Amino acid sequence: MESYTVVRPEHLNHYGHLFGGCLLKWIDEIAWIAASRDNPGCRFVTIGMDRVEFHRGVELGTVLRFGAAESCRGRTSLTYGVSVYADDLETGREVPIFSTCITFVRLDEQGRKIPLPTAEPSLV
Fold it and tell me: Which residues belong to any copy of the HotDog ACOT-type domain (predicted)?
């Protein structure tokens, strides 16, 4: 799944760069949306995020591209890799600014872990 956002004034820290907490929130939301779309009817909650290391600062007006894809699947949990790029709209180039893996667990209505649906074999 791919998604985009623009860094606006309300996303900046006191130094004038993107606040790391905003980026982490967007990553969590985008990965959760990807997992939910890939697994309809499943209720997921975040249980962990891999390494958090910001590669460079991001300025006001920057367009960010997020890419999220499943990277690992267990019995009750799954992990999505998320990469974030800053787009340079003048040159068309992208600069990687962040990447991580985020893990979700499937829960029932009472908050108990339940197995993920099994993948349907493709009919090719």
Answer: 1-110
CB 79 within 8 A of CB 68: no
Q: Is 12 helix (H, G, I), strand (E, B) or coil?
A: strand
Domain CATH code at residue 62: 3.10.129.10
Q: What is the pLDDT of residues 23-66, one digit of tens each?
A: 999 999 999 999 999 999 999 999 999 989 888 899 999 999 99
SS3 content of the chain, % helix, strand, coil (to 5): 20, 40, 40
Handedness of CA 3, 9, 11, 13 (dihedral sign): positive
In a domain, 113, yes or no: no
Size of the chain in residues? 124
